[in-house]
Design a protein that fits this description.
It is a single chain. The protein has 15 helices and nine strands. It has helices at 2-25, 63-69, 130-138, 147-161, 176-184, 193-199, 216-226, 230-256, 271-280, 284-296, 302-314, 318-329, 334-346, 350-365, 372-389, and strands spanning 29-30, 39-46, 50-51, 54-55, 82-89, 99-108, 111-118, 141-144, 172-175. It has a seven-stranded mixed sheet, sandwiched between helices. A hairpin with an 8-residue loop joins strand 1 and strand 2 (39-46). Helix 9 (271-280) runs antiparallel to helix 10, helix 12 runs antiparallel to helix 13 (334-346) and helix 13 runs antiparallel to helix 14. The longest helix has 27 residues, at 230-256. The chain starts with a helix and ends in a 13-residue tail after the last helix.
Length: 402
């Protein structure tokens, strides 16, 4: 019994030491729980604050984003409806992962607030969800970056562990990672938030103040075992930057998806990807306009001309489709060579159709990873066109495949 008392006293003293350490390193306050309080920080930013020359809230949430994310089409969202969420955890897996910091961003009384809920020790976790519950009850749109795959499942697991009921999926949820991938996957080496910050938001994190995301778990373990809080202070800065840049990215994506853009073309935006986004939501006319504008500006990339050709083809505008495919074909785009050959064969221009098909065969054969089904189809087309150009007496001509 005496050993148990000594162990409890030792644990109590360690927890007190950790709380004193974090309060010296970071400006904040503890919750009023008698046992295992959590540590809160709050910082306000004026509504007109701009992060990396971007506002923290968009002019509006455009219909294209609403339809893509399955948000309410008729909902008139206000800044006060939005809650930005970002976790710092003890690992990347869901099993056994502890969310030792819950970062929250929200608009209130004309300001953007960043709140952080930190666990001075793991036993405080069950008290860390109270503020999250409170904010979720008064907000209707959750904004995250990779929240659907990571943050929300992690929180659900921890809430279940503590037998706390909070339906995180009741709120409408816009996960910016997925829309960012659609808009920038061709343009960036990675669509991680820090990569987008660097290449799109032109922000370089200060290594003296911030910390790499990969170092966050070990930094928390170091704090728990040593009580050294200077490094954990950098985790607070890291999480605050994540919240602010998630809000700024939300504003950039929403404001840049309007076409034509009010402020002129933005070099940060991949308009080809934007056209495909509109096309995926059934807005083919606007997708066509964007691609036509890109070609008119001299952006002669074969993929742009090919995708424009596909739109014309679906609209049964064969002349414009052929013109687009031939632009891409001149740049050795295999799929466009095949599409152009199909149209030319229907027009009985067998010589040119054969030339395009043979060029497509040559390019496809030269690839490291070959599409054998496509090669077989191209070969079949080449054979048929050769027969049409020099048919054997009495031999039926194989019909064209679409």
């Amino acid at each position: 019994m005496d050993m148990d008392k000594d162990r409890d006293l030792f644990g109590t003293e360690i927890k007190q030491m950790l709380r004193e350490s974090i309060s010296r390193a970071v400006t904040g306050y503890f919750s009023k729980h008698a046992d295992d309080p959590v540590f809160y920080t709050r910082e306000a930013y004026p509504m007109k604050t701009r992060i990396e020359d971007l506002p923290l809230y968009p002019k509006s949430i455009p219909e294209i984003i609403r339809s893509w994310a399955n948000l309410g089409r008729e909902t008139l969202y206000k800044p006060e409806d939005v809650l930005v969420l970002d976790l710092e955890t003890t690992g990347l897996g869901r099993s056994g992962t502890l969310a030792f910091m819950i970062g929250l961003g929200y608009f209130e009384a004309g300001e953007f607030w960043v709140e952080q809920i930190f666990l001075p020790d793991p036993d405080a976790e069950e008290h860390s969800f109270e503020r999250l519950q409170e904010l979720m009850q008064s907000r209707s749109l959750l904004i995250t970056f990779n929240g659907k795959s990571f943050d929300v499942p992690v929180l659900e697991g921890r809430l279940l562990y503590h037998q706390i009921w909070l339906d995180l999926r009741a709120m409408e949820h816009l996960d910016l990672l997925h829309i960012a991938r659609r808009l920038w996957k061709r343009k960036l080496p990675s669509c991680a938030l820090e990569s987008i910050e660097f290449y799109i938001l032109s922000h370089i994190r200060d290594k003296e103040l911030d910390i790499s995301g990969g170092d966050v778990p070990q930094t928390y373990f170091h704090f728990l075992t040593t009580g050294e809080a200077e490094s954990i202070r950098r985790v607070f800065v890291h999480n605050q930057h994540d919240i602010l840049h998630t809000a700024a990215l939300f504003a950039l994506i929403c404001d840049s998806c309007q076409y034509p853009p009010e402020g002129g073309m933005d070099s940060r935006i991949d308009y080809h990807a934007l056209a495909l986004l509109y096309q995926s939501q059934g807005h083919e006319e606007l997708a066509r306009r964007i691609l036509v504008d890109m070609l008119a500006r001299g952006e002669l990339r074969p993929e742009i001309a090919h995708d424009l050709g596909i739109i014309y083809k679906r609209a049964k505008e064969a002349e414009d489709a052929l013109a687009s495919f031939e632009i891409a074909a001149s740049l050795d785009h295999s799929l466009s060579l095949i599409e152009a050959a199909k149209i030319l064969e229907k027009r009985k221009d067998f010589t040119k159709a054969l030339k395009y098909s043979q060029r497509a065969m040559f390019l496809s054969n030269g690839r490291y990873l070959q599409n054998h089904k496509q090669l077989a189809e191209i070969q079949k087309r080449v054979d048929r066109l050769q027969k049409k150009l020099s048919p054997q007496p009495g031999q039926p001509i194989e019909p064209e495949s679409s």
